[in-house]
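Lab manual, section 2.4: Encoding a predicted structure.

Procedure: take the sequence of the chain (380 residues), apply the prediction step described in section 2.3, and record the output as structure tokens. A sample record is shown.
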Amino acid sequence: MTPLRWRDPRVVPLVLGPAVGLLAIAEVGLDDAFAAHRAAVLVPGLLLGAGIVLAARLPLAGALIAAACFPLGLLVGAPDIGGAGLIGLIGVTAWSGWRLPPRRSGIALAAAMAAGVVTSLLAGQSVWEAIFQPAILLPGWALGLQSRINGERAAELTRLAAALDAERERNAHAAVASERTRIAREVHDAVAHSVSVMTLQLGGLRRMLDDPEHREIVHNLERLGRQSVEEMRGLVGILRERAAGTPAPEPSLGRAADLVGEVRAAGLPVELEVAGERSGVPRLLDASAYRVLQEALTNVLRHSGPVPTRVRIAYAPGQVSLSVVNDPGTAPAEEPGRGGHGLVGMRERVSLFRGSLRAGPEPDGGFAVRATFPLTGVAA
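Recorded output:
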């Protein structure tokens, strides 16, 4: 049994049992008809209290023991059931009606009623007493049964309310997903064309350059532009037909070295450190972590310029963490309020997996982005 608290229903028989035993003792001392049969009344009365206490754990067994106390009392010389016994029998019958299914609680009721009839007949009481004592048990049993029915209805209503809440949440998520899909499609339509035109212009510029180093830089930018368009098409591929050609590689931390190589070719000196084994990382989390790393490196180029940057990816039991730390920037500082939405997007990606993101200046004047993604509770 779990630890009991005052609001636990099992407290009822645990309190009623000793109370009935005390009432039996008081009845012997205060009623002259029972005082002459002290032992014959106390023994079944105390046994009745013990049966009620047992009913807290075993309702049917406790009710049967309580019902058997009254014929037992007559056999040892008790004159009658007594008021304390009748109170205890009503209480244990009501308790069994609440705790047991109707068929099993009906057994407890039938046993208690039979005990009342047998006790009345053996005691030589009138027919009315033989009817009254078992009949008075019916309201107690009906009250317990009705409480059980009300409790089952309340539990069913709680389950239905939880199901409705879950359905409402699913509908809300579906609406959010639909809206994000629509925005992704619109962003693709608006940006893909511009990036494609820029890529074509970079290709024309590359053919006009004579310096091999400059041609290589422009060539890398051209390749990044084409890859960005392909990745954007991949994000909305379920809504638009993917362009013919080789599909863009799926974003993943497994491609971190390729990403670092691309930004290094663009002029950013980057060092990459990977700790731990990349295994068991859910696909969606893997893609989001890659996008956070990509955005952090892009921000270094945009806001700090080609400064030494250190990237660290750590795979540990239960989490994936990454950090991008760069030295003090050489690019001109942006005007207040002119920053982009990179940090907002990173925070949103991390929060989807209940992770944490810290981004801010370092004591030496540089800037650091540190993200942690927990692996627990994330679907693969």
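Check your result against the sample. The beta strands are 270-275, 309-316, 319-326, 356-361, 367-374.
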